[in-house]
Amino acid sequence: MDYDTLTWIWFFLLGVLLCGYTILDGFDLGVGILHLFIAKSDDERRLVMNSIGPLWDGNEVWLVTFGGALFAAFPVAYATVFSSFYTAFNLLLTCLIGRAVSLEFRSKVHSKSWRRVWDVGFFASSLCAAMLLGIAGGNILAGMELGPGYRYQGSLLGQLYWYPLLVGLLTASLFAMHGAIYLYLKTEDALQERVRQWITPLFFVFASLYLLVTVATWAHVPHSTENISKYPILWAVPVLNLLAVLNIPRAMHLRLPLYAFFSSSMVILALASLFSVAVCPNLMLSTIDPSLSVTLENARSSHRTLGIMLAVAAIGLPCVLSYTVTIYWIFRGKVKLDSHSY
Amino acid sequence: MDVEILSRLQFAGTIMFHYLFPPLSIGLGLQLFLCELAYFRTRKPEWEIAARFWTRVFAVNFAMGVSTGIVMEFEFGTNWAAYSRFVGDVFGSALAAEGIFAFFLESGFLAILVFGWDRVKPPLHLFSTLMVFLGSVFSAVWIVIANSWQQTPAGYHIVWHDVQGTPMPRAEITDFWAMVFNPSSVDRLSHTIIGALVLGAFFVASVCSYYVLKGKHLDVARRCLSIALPTALLFTITAAMTGHDAAQRLVETQPAKLAAMEAHFETSEDPTGLYLFGWPDAESKTVHFGLKLPRLLSFLVYNDFKTPVPGMDKIPIEDQPPIWLPFQTFHLMVGLGTLMIFVAALGCFHWYRRTLENSRWLLWVIIFMPIAAMTANHAGWVTAEVGRQPWIVYPSVQDGVEMMGLRTSDGLSESVTADQVLASIVLFGMIYSMLFAVWIFVLNHKIQHGPETLEQLAKIKASHANRGMQELFEKQGRALGGDLMEDDSDRN
Questions:
Q1: Which of A102, B276, B442, B489 is deepest in the core (most CB within 10 A)?
Q2: Which of A65, A108, A292 is opposite residue B99, by nearest beta carbon?
Q3: Could you tell me where the DSSP H helices lie in chain A?
Q4: CA-wise closest residue to B414 among A333, A311, A62, A153
Q5: Cα angle vertex B135, ends B129, B139, to 5°?
Q6: B225 Cα to chain A: minimum distance (Å)
């Protein structure tokens, strides 16, 4: 296979991993954001946490594998992006650790204040993680101060201006809505009713932020529409995106929560695709001088490595998908508490 | 302090903290699998109780391992960007393979292992336990391969790329399998994994000895000891053997590291001796308070008492690693390894003679053995990593051509400042000390609580069976009612 085709395949596969991560970890981050408000009693809180109990860990592996695959397929992009977001990513790591241990440790001790601490920890770390992912995405979309030799010349505060923060809020609201629909699927009775009451307001928050970010992107990131105007077929992505967004309230109204969950997954998929279309062929745009950008071409691994990695993915991905499906199947249905629950 | 020192401190700190957990996951994974296998074959409920108990301990440990592991992956990019650009083509593929082949397997089947006791049939549960264990082993396989490649690189060449007008070197794969099976992969891998299995065996033996001393949970404790002690003996002995093989290989691949481990300053015509202990002083090139056995190092390295071992003077001064730390950690590892062989052998002996439960002092010693095993694992790691300085990627010779290496000081992220690194050290320092306290607290809580009794297990099973019936009943009711949608809308 020739070098350029392989490069595009890897760009696509990274997209698949990123979408897999945002769709899957998206709902468990959303559950984390919401649990403080939705669950009232200790039992309800445990039900909410156990709804993602067997799954969150596997969901996070998508992020780890995305990182590893980016390292292997586009090492220059990996090095540049990760070192540019130094402090932001350290905070993200803190949040991911906080979430893992909040889940794991909360139920180990029967004390009200102990549980309260981990509840708040779970909420705060889930919210921050969602925001930080969005902030990173917003910065990448808008471009960053990349100097010669891929040296990032900006600062943490330079990454925290209105546009990425807006994208961060969009991500958090999207995940919260996605998580609420997921919780609706997994819960019953009074708890489920409370979850349902949250979905509509969350949808409106998300939809308004979605409009706001769309307008902001047009104004602030003019280059983001270049690819779409060059290849009109790509209009399909935003159109499908809009349809998926509108389908969420429709599906909920029809009382088809699984369909609504599918739709919100499609919204995430479409937004991630839109993001890829907007940045391509750059992986990190330089706002100092476009010729200093990290691109698919200057960031990629050697021809041979991309080929080896494709073989690895061809063997690995079907296995991964098959046991992911198996596990979601085994833990289907409403969440119940038992002696091994959190 | 400068960015290099801080980044190295950060990496050492975060990886040593991370390295508390994966070896325990691997070792405990095997013990867990053996318990469950015993249950599967004998159907004795005590084995099931044991397996359920170790599962809970395993889960807490696993969560810590996963969350501190992501930090490591991020750090390559955040702190060591220049290194990542240099090795990404080679190192990245091993890391990606770890994600695809190991992490998904582990995390997927962990769900069944932890949450699936009352959901899936015993054969599938046993299979899941095996998969989780294998997943943690595969993870070690790929990460140790990646690390070994840095120590003894193979299967690559250096290509110069034009980066905005400046030429920059990069290691690129020429032969994937030569990269995977580089000269030190197999030695280091077997030694590392066996070290983890030793830790797991001693961990189980330690908790069970504690129960025996307290006279609690004796059914479970005795059974688990009968697995843990023999495996501890087997793996401590094989650890010594694989360690010996790895050290012999060093004289060809990393003579500087070997010289540092033994504080061997000057090469001479005479056979080389071996220090049992000492206090090396690099400035005066002497070892204070040392006890040296003549000719022994020559024998250990070359299997004869005559051939001299090359010393530090054969290494250019700018390529010499620090000596004091590798020397001490290496000797600590070997000393603890020897101690562990003795304790395991003594434990097995008393077990066989049925006198273990009366040898209270031995039970007390066994209780502290996980600390010895953990320390030995860490000491081995420090020896390996400090002993390869100042190289982050060793230079190597391929087909008679010397390939470029990468110095640790050249691997840093150019855009990161000392303040940022310091801030992240403080951040991780706080989080990790809190995590460590909580981990110890929860672990202790679990151990004090202990496994369930037979009655408790029966109760859990009965309640689950009841719920199963109830669900079945509901489902049938629904099926008779015919309309699922209607049923759902009734609820709302």
A1: A102
A2: A65
A3: 3-38, 42-52, 56-73, 75-84, 86-106, 112-142, 162-186, 189-220, 226-230, 236-253, 257-279, 296-299, 303-330
A4: A153
A5: 150
A6: 24
Of residues A181, A195, A189, A155, the one with CA closest to residue A39: A195
Task: Return all residues near A95 (Cβ < 8 A) that are at least 6 apart.
Answer: A124, A125, A126, A128, A129, A132
Check residue B271 and report its DSSP letter: P
Identify any residues that bridge with B173 across adjacent strands, giving them in sequence order.
Answer: B156
- Tokens 């990019």 appear where? B77
CA distance linking residue B190 with residue B235, whole number of Å: 11
**A21 against B414, higher pLDDT:** A21
Are the CB atoms for B96 and A67 separated by under 8 Å? no
Q: With an 8 Å Cβ cutoff, are A309 and B101 in contact?
A: no
pLDDT value at position B45?
87
B109 to chain A: which residues are within 8 Å by CB?
323, 327
- Measured CA to CA, the distance from residue A27 to residue A202 in angstroms comes to 14
| CA B408 to chain centroid | 23
Q: How far, in Å, CA of A20 to CA of A55, rounded?
A: 13
Tokens matching residue B217: 């949970």
| From A11-20, A248-257, B324-333, the region with the lowest mean pLDDT | A248-257
Give the one of A83, A153, A339 whose C-beta lies nearest to B413's C-beta: A83
The percentage of residues in chain A with a pLDDT greater than 90, rounded to a whole number, is: 20
Predicted pLDDT at B287:
77
Nearest CB partner across the interface for B118, out of A71, A73, A338: A338
pLDDT number for residue B487: 38
Give residue B491's pLDDT: 36
In sequence order, the 6+-apart residues with CB closer than 8 A to the CB of A244 are: A263, A264, A266, A267, A270
ipTM (interface predicted TM)? 0.81
Query: Are B201 and B27 in contact, with CB atoms under 8 Å apart?
Result: yes
Task: Provide the 3-class DSSP secondary structure of residue B215.
Answer: coil
Give the model confidence (pLDDT) of B79-105 as tens digits.
888 888 888 888 888 888 888 888 888
Please give the share of chain A, as a percent, with pLDDT higher than 70: 99
| Confidence label for B158 from pLDDT (cuts 50, 70 and 90) | confident
A69:B96 CB<8 A:
yes
pLDDT of residue B319: 84
Q: How far apart are the first and last CA of chain A?
A: 48
Residue with tokens 């089947």: B109
Query: Per residue in B452-491, pLDDT tens?
Result: 887 788 887 777 766 666 665 555 554 444 333 333 333 3
In eight-state DSSP terms, residue A97 is H
Residue of chain B whose Cα is closest to the Cα of A54: B111
Pick from A61, A308, A331: CB nearest B107: A61
Q: How far apart are CA B479 and CA B477, in angstroms?
A: 5
Q: Which two tokens stand for residue B124?
A: 């599938």
Which of B107, B424, B445 has the CB atom closest to A108's CB atom? B445
pLDDT at A134 over 90: yes
Q: Positive or negative, the Cα torsion across A325, B62, B370, B46?
A: negative
* pLDDT classification of A246: cutoffs 50, 70, 90: confident
The verdict on a CB contact (< 8 Å) between B92 and A63 is no
Q: Which of B80, B63, B52 is nearest to B24 (CA)?
A: B63
Q: Do B97 and A196 touch (CB under 8 A)?
A: no
pLDDT of res. B467: 65
With beta carbons under 8 A apart, name residues in chain A contacting B79.
Answer: 83, 86
Q: Which of A329, A340, A341 should we substitute to test contact with B (largest number of B Cβ atoms within 10 Å)?
A: A340
The pLDDT value recorded for residue B469 is 61
What is the per-residue pLDDT for B483? 38
Structure confidence at residue A340 as a pLDDT band (50, 70, 90):
low
For chain B, helix, strand, coil in percent to 5 are: 75, 10, 20
